[in-house]
Amino acid sequence: MTTSWLVTGAHGLLGRDVLAELATDPDAVVTGLGRDGLDITDPAAVRAAAAGHQVIVNCAAWTDVDGAERSEAAATAVNGTGVRHLARACADSGALLLHVSTDYVFPGDARLPYPEDAPTGPVNAYGRGKLAGERAVAELLPRTGYTVRTAWLYGPHGPNFVATVLGLAARRATLDVVADQYGQPTWSRALARQLAALGRRALTGRAPAGVYHGTSSGRTTWCGLARETFRLSGLDPERIRPVGSDKFPRPAPRPAFGVLGHDNWRRAGLPPLPQWEDQLASALTAPAFAALAEAARGTRRP
């Protein structure tokens, strides 16, 4: 039996991978809408787009963290109010909603991984807006709403940290990278597979609604991620120099600790995402990353 899926934010880093993953499912009929095709801040447009779909995967988001600090109302219109429009449309139509959120809803002051039901407390405007979206899903879709928090997302289809450090490797002998923020680097294709699996289980009633943490297993720092990216790409990881966050002041404060726990996947009968190092090794075989690594290895630096 076919299932009708709608993917919002379909032209972004994660949205493109969700479309690619669903394309491998012969029973999935998929519509992908980017920002030019659906403005989720427009409730009438959201209602029209949602009609006739059984599962909506929301990858649409304001992702500029520092920009959100400068323009909180505009960011929250997308990350909070826009998600409420989607949740309302799903409540009216009976569709399931899989909404992608962030570890930035937490304050970052923990020492152990945050469980799914840990108290929230965002320290920046981006986190506040995303938390508003989460609350809308929980309020309007208590039985059919799924919030999947992710973090440190990277992939070949958009700007991200892994692509940035590989690009800089061709131009700089050394790179200073923050070593006092902890998180879980997550490959966009692996998260896309997890979202598709969750949606399929939710359709059969085998996945409880609520919050799931869609991050890789393990933990590292930005410096650790940069060094492992270099090592796996045939570059010298010692070119990465650890520094404190104070070396790179930003408009929006970043949580120092964004490591998330994964207990709720077991309730849905699904394993958590694999270890971050294994995900990275797989991701770096993508042509876009491989080309950046090849360019960096072939560059003669002073």
Automatic annotation (TrEMBL):
InterPro entries noted in UniProt: dTDP_dehydrorham_reduct, NAD(P)-bd_dom_sf, RmlD-like-bd
Known pathway: Carbohydrate biosynthesis; dTDP-L-rhamnose biosynthesis
Keyword vocabulary terms for this entry: NADP, Oxidoreductase
EC number: 1.1.1.133
Record flagged with keyword Coiled coil: no
Pfam families: RmlD_sub_bind
Function (record text): Catalyzes the reduction of dTDP-6-deoxy-L-lyxo-4-hexulose to yield dTDP-L-rhamnose.
Family, similarity comment: Belongs to the dTDP-4-dehydrorhamnose reductase family.
Name of the protein in its database record: dTDP-4-dehydrorhamnose reductase
